[in-house]
Amino acid sequence: MKIISRTAAFLLLPVLVFSAFRLEEPGWQSRYVKISKDGALTYVPDEKGNIIPDFSRVGYHQGDQPIPDVPVVKTISPAASGDSRQMIQDAINEVARRTPDAKGFRGAILLKKGTYLIPGTITVNAGGIVLRGEGDTPQGTRLVAAGKGQRTLLTITGSGTLTEVRGSRVKITDPFVPVGAFSFNVTSAAGFKAGDPVVLFRPGTENWIHDLKMDQIDAREGTKQWQPGEYDLKYERVITKITGNKIFLDNPVVMEMETKYGGGELCKYTFAGRSAECGVENLYFESAYAGDIDEDHGWTAVQFSKTENGWARNITSRYFGNSCVSIGGTAKYITVTDSKCLDAKSVITGSRRYSFNVDGQLNLVMNCQATEGRHDYVTGARVTGPNVFYNCTAKNTHADIGPHHRWATGTLFDNIVTDGEINVQDRGKMGSGHGWSGANQVMWNCTVASAAVQDPWVSARNYSIGTQGKIAPGAIPDRNKATWEGQNKKGLTPKSLYMAQLMARKGKR
After folding, report:
1. CB atoms inside a 10 Å sphere around CB 255
2. InterPro entries of this UniProt entry (predicted)?
3. Which architecture does CATH list for 163-270?
4. Which of 219, 237, 281, 492 is geometrically suited to a Cys-Cys bond with 223, CB 3.0 to 4.6 A?
5. Where does the chain hold its CATH 2.40.30 domain(s)?
6. How far apart are the C-alpha atoms of 237 and 255, rounded to whole Å?
């Protein structure tokens, strides 16, 4: 056996350390997003001018404000009778009568450690209220969906609907507006000003649906072909600047608009009654259940709707049939962070076990965990992005992660690790005729057992960049393969697209 002297070993050590360091260095960058040494990002357009959009302006106050620690104004303990629902609801109603402070907060309600039996639903329907516990474990603050009945345990909501300001709608005059754009020209910007909340409207026209072949879905009983008007997309934005008739927005276009498919329009809107500044934190949610396939019990732990700039952090749900957190279509700028959806109880089939579900826009789900789910990090039909799922895991999965059905646009799946699949595909006749599930979806540095990522026939691209795992054929294998780059190749830089975009926007090099 050859012996290396101590001196030789000492001289060799720096070489080994240097070699190990070099092996761990980032090895490659995407050809679509380049990052410089100082953290600046450059986006390379495709042949039509589309780029991977900036996903950094999502979640609570677009990521520009930390989630606050709201002062406690009411403290309660579990009811001696065993039924704590009314006691908690009374506390919420009491705090709702308080006058909000300058930042919109009424105060936090502290639920002391212990078990709170909730036979119905708790509702927060005023802004500025935080429901806070003393720990998201069974030994902390434990809220139990007691008894039978599919229901949401905690609903955070407001009132009203999104209403277009009459006479404010104008046409976009650019013949093509690419994905990633923050500006475009309109017929007249005279009726708008910086700070106006606006809807960016992209019509779902008959010829677009035909070219997408979604009026030709291979039918089975219950299959519904896509219809014009049902696929009109409404993106909420805020005007940041106006130059002549050129309007600049706070968030990017995530669905290309072109004249032959109806172009696009812009209008002002109001949403009177939409609540804001509500949160839920440090709580453990549990559902009673009769058996592993029992479905007559708690269904969703927390539901957001008709609200904005809210959060759920450090919460855990166990044994619910569907979700830990579900963000409805009327909710935006919601951050869900450091939360867990564990051990769902239901039949393992459709419309169940959507662990972290997003139907709204401009939302962020990060640092979350799921077990025994089906669609653990998922969007629904006609979801208007951007939305982000970042740094999340899923174990013992029973279906796939990704856009579930019917043309969700502008979603980033960033550093998602699953023992199952992430799919972005034409689902065809699955469900009631889901068809193309997602458009301008980006998988970045994800780890999967397999993934099917396909491109729609028209109007969008999908990306799988740095994915570790196998390529799956998909539900309909003859569809166009999406952009795959660096499959099973280590060292993608930046490691996280969302974090790189956020840091670049904030100037934190």
Report:
1. 21
2. Pectin_lyas_fold, Pectin_lyase_fold/virulence
3. Beta Barrel (2.40)
4. 219
5. 163-270
6. 14
Give tens-digit pLDDT for 192-220. 999 999 999 999 999 999 999 999 999 88
| pLDDT at residue 4 greater than cutoff 60 | no
CA atoms within 13 A on the CB side of 114: 15
Residues 6+ apart with CB under 8 A from 310: 60, 156, 275, 276, 277, 278, 279, 304, 331, 333, 334, 335
- Of 380, 405, 406, 378, the C-alpha closest to 392 is 378
Phi, psi dihedrals of residue 16, rounded to the nearest 5°: -65, -45
d(CA 174, CA 100): 43
Q: Are 365 and 424 in contact (CB under 8 A)?
A: no
**CB-based contacts of 322, cutoff 8 Å, min separation 6:** 299, 300, 344, 346, 351, 352, 353, 354, 357
Determine the topology of domain 48-161+271-375 in CATH: Pectate Lyase C-like (2.160.20)
Which class for 16: exposed (0-12), middle (13-18), buried (19 or more C-beta within 10 A)?
exposed
CA distances from 146 to 12, 99, 288, 302, 387 (A): 65, 33, 5, 15, 33
Q: Are 272 and 308 in contact (CB under 8 A)?
A: no
What's the rounded mean pLDDT across residues 11-40? 65
CA distance 169 to 172: 10
pTM: 0.94
Report pLDDT digits (tens) over 418-455: 999 999 999 999 988 999 999 999 999 999 999 999 99
Residues of the chain with CATH 2.160.20.10: 48-161+271-375
CA 71, chain centre distance (Å)? 28
Q: Residue 263: which of 171, 382, 386 has the closest Cα?
A: 171
What confidence tier does 507 reach under pLDDT thresholds 50, 70, 90?
Answer: confident
